[in-house]
Amino acid sequence: MANAVNTIGVLTSGGDAPGMNAAIRGVVRTALSLGMKVKGIQKGYHGLLNEEIIDMDAHSVSNTIDRGGTILYTARCMRFYDEEGQKQGAEICKKHGIEGLVVIGGDGSFQGAQKLAGLGINTIALPGTIDLDIACTDYTIGFDTAVNTAMQAIDKIRDTSTSHERCSIIEVMGRNAGHIALWCGIANGAEDILIPSKYDHDEERIIQEIIANKKRGKKHHIIVNAEGVGHSTEMAQRLEKATGVETRATILGHMQRGGSPTCKDRVYASVMGAMAAELLAAGKSNRVIAQRGGEFVDLDINEALAMSKDVDEYMYKVSGLLCR
Ligand code: ADP
Ligand code: F6P
Known about the structure:
alpha/beta, binds adenosine-5'-diphosphate, single chain, seven-stranded mixed beta sheet, four-stranded parallel beta sheet
């Protein structure tokens, strides 16, 4: 059966995430195997508006599955928030023969894809963000690598924290979400996990806990603080003053976004990329690929964007029981 579209484009948008290259590779190689042509749009919607568009063949994605970052580069683009920019983007797609587009990014990028779908470009979105903050899916490309990178960094901080009998506050990324903080908090055996949607800002409780733990002979006190709570350096100064326990803050920052993707990120991103190409070949549009209940599924982007989620309640409860 003939494909519904002959030429597709692929772009990465918003913050990069490890595994994006595996997703691009999945899109490109699957589309080629189905007989479609593939164009890579560099630097997200910004590059689309600047017509930074390249032809891609099977070789374009060779030696990329193990690479962090995105070979197509990424950007944030203010012009794309406006109808004018979106219309121009759709026109540029048409000019280059791009009938279908795979957008790999977070829910901001999904909204751009939704707008292009409304303007006649078939779009499929893939969840690419280290933050895991896309409501429709249990998995986002890059989270597994990021959380492992952060976990390993916190293990190292814990070593020196124990040697010096210090308190350490480690700030992890996640924008307004607390998934990275919760996972690291559990994985690193943190004494406190501060998450935007849960933290009550009761610093006195933390102070009393640090003092009590010190009395019990604990050699360190690890606080994993989410970016959305922030202010780690100031918090460290306040805690040290109130407890008398030396306290240091470390902001892990962008190191969490880099590095070679884990096996899970490579495999899941590859599968999602392949599914995106197949959906475009079948004439689907305005869909997002998600993982729900262990299965890969596609959902309407409008429905996906209307969903909301917080950190897993049971995991959060368990984290509180284990922080002793
Ligand atoms: P993420 O995709 O990781 O959530 P952003 O929210 O920064 O990251 O969005 C990435 C880009 O997607 C933005 O710079 C903009 O170009 C585009 N975008 C975001 N929101 C919209 C929107 N409401 N309409 C159209 N484009 C959008
Ligand atoms: O969305 C990914 C993310 O790394 C967030 O965790 C963080 O808040 C943001 O991007 C940082 O963005 P920038 O790269 O613009 O500093």
